[in-house]
């Protein structure tokens, strides 16, 4: 199946010489939720702005459902809804007029039934006649989402959509995102709440210093890089790990009161259980007693931090 968004050799260098994006290649699948993760200044917003036709690329090509964003801008842009980070609204218009006007900008005929359905889905129906200037920040964010969806786009960009919003809006938004995905809409989001990406995304991309360093199915990524760790709380502090236990790769933590054993999660297989049983037996043979133990799996946030840190270290070493 043809990707809904195809990006090839995309670069952006500003007049100051700053390279915001460096040779990005990325295909986004139709009907998926794609999470784009990266630290501040990594290039996330620049990439979104180029796809949405708000910033011109220095090199490369972007197509939305086969429409080139430069040669066929109107058709490409009509496919896209964008919820920006900033709360930019027409302060003295009503909610209903703002969302209806946004639909008309894309040449769509009036559809009061659709606008009503949209406002109800975003808990805005009771505010439909209220001027935007009188709304709270969370309600204004809901209006931005309604505007982005007013022309029934096939691609929705959410740029830090839940930054600074209340828990209720965050919950409503993700329910809406799931419904949109179920109807075939492609959703691309950036977020600082990485646990949201872990819960919502089908695929994850990580960008650092303008370079796309990883694109992977979330489940595959968690399986390959997630790993697990067994933490043993020791009955008595340990000064160092005995040499007889060196092959386990144990890490002494919290002033010698914990031992950490990291391992890959290969399911509930016999091999994994045998390895842990061998470790516990060898600890007993070494005279090391523990008071408690628990296991935990690396989160997407842990993976993200380690990937970005490794990339930044590599760039620093190359620059020397």
From TrEMBL:
Q: What is this protein called?
A: ABC transporter
Q: Report which residue ranges the record marks as coiled coil.
A: none
Origin species, per record, is Thauera linaloolentis (strain DSM 12138 / JCM 21573 / CCUG 41526 / CIP 105981 / IAM 15112 / NBRC 102519 / 47Lol)
Keywords attached to this entry: ATP-binding, Cell membrane, Membrane, Nucleotide-binding, Transport
Nucleotide-binding: present as a keyword of the record? yes
Keyword set includes Cytoplasm: no
Check the record and name the Pfam families matching this protein. ABC_tran (PF00005)
In alphabetical order, the GO MF annotations are: ATP binding; ATP hydrolysis activity
Q: Where is the ABC transporter domain?
A: 5-234
